[in-house]
Amino acid sequence: MVSSSVFDIKEHVIPGEHTREYARAKANSQEETLVLQVKQYTPKGNGAPQKGDLNIIGAHANGFPKELYEPLWEELAKSLASKGVRIGSIWIADCAWQGQSGILNKDRLGDDPSWFDYSRDMLQMINHFRMPRPLLGIAHSFGACALVNLALFHPRLFSSLVLIDPVINMHNPGAIQGYMQPPSMSAKRRDVWPSRAAAAAAFQKSPFYQSWDPRVFDRWIAHGLTQCAPDNPQVTLTTTKHQEVFTFARPSYHAVTSDGKSITDMDLVPDMDLTHGVLTPIYRPEPSLVFNRLPHLRPHVLWVFGGDSYMSFEAMRNEKLKATGTGVGGSGGVAAGRVTHVVGEGWGHLIPLEAPAFVAEAAAETAAETVKRWQVEERAYGAWTRKPLAEKSQIRPELLDIMAKALKPKM
């Protein structure tokens, strides 16, 4: 396996969130436990973390193991060191049905995962390790959608978010005919090779992988493949193509009339968007559900878009920038200076795998500002903690006075 000259790496296995979004996410029982395989990256020489060290939560794209983001973390560590920002640790889990988590759970996985399960699993990870603030979330693709969902139901958890070409759209991708292509391609992809070396040779010939940073490609060969059996040199995909397809698209054909005009069983598709006119045989509810709640997003946000990404055409970018943080409970959005963006021209949806240094430099600027803001907030909180306990835990006299005046009969 690929080692790191930048980080000390620890592996953890922890329980995931108990109740899943859909019953059939678990194969045998609603009560069985799915586990998460977590990696913790601590910069070498930072064996004694300090208060105020930045802790980073990562989340991966569909079908790509968490280890592919190690070059991004290494570039980010270098950029932050040049700015005098200390990293406590970077934490990232494979979602429960993919990567090493998927291997650990293989006898317990069903066919109906939710992106929001990943949101809750990330919260479970943060709570399990009692991670100190400030927290910065950095996530890619479907993982970015899951991260935003977490920030929406726990608005103060993250100080800032870096969202890399996220799958968050005004319109449900299931309603777009072209969205059939990714799950169709995944369903047909080859998933067994005679050896790891044979697989590497095949991947090297594919234009899909030729745009990747070589360090990312090396980690794909090391972590994107797993032996079929201990005594068998054959390898297969670490994330099965079945779970990859289930993540791309949720079936609705069994709950929609053949003409696509009405739903026959709402219990089967309780979160299907009915506003698109034609109901499709597959759907994915999370992208539009999260998009519609972007106005309420409170953390500072950096959007990182791939200039050539099919998920980030200019109109799609503008929709996100216009919506983010502008509603009740939101940050104030672009107008308040709390939502920014960069566009990586010439790179596509896989920009963190193609150009980790570009993404890291943009993220480092956001991270440095995150730490500065947290320090201001922490000083204010620290001053309050030094007040007498009675003053902190009892009704303040001025509040009693305000309430009394409000209730006083008007003459």
From TrEMBL:
<feature type="domain" description="AB hydrolase-1">
    <location>
        <begin position="59"/>
        <end position="362"/>
    </location>
</feature>
<dbReference type="Pfam" id="PF12697">
    <property type="entry name" value="Abhydrolase_6"/>
</dbReference>
<dbReference type="InterPro" id="IPR029058">
    <property type="entry name" value="AB_hydrolase_fold"/>
</dbReference>
<dbReference type="InterPro" id="IPR000073">
    <property type="entry name" value="AB_hydrolase_1"/>
</dbReference>
<protein>
    <recommendedName>
        <fullName>AB hydrolase-1 domain-containing protein</fullName>
    </recommendedName>
</protein>
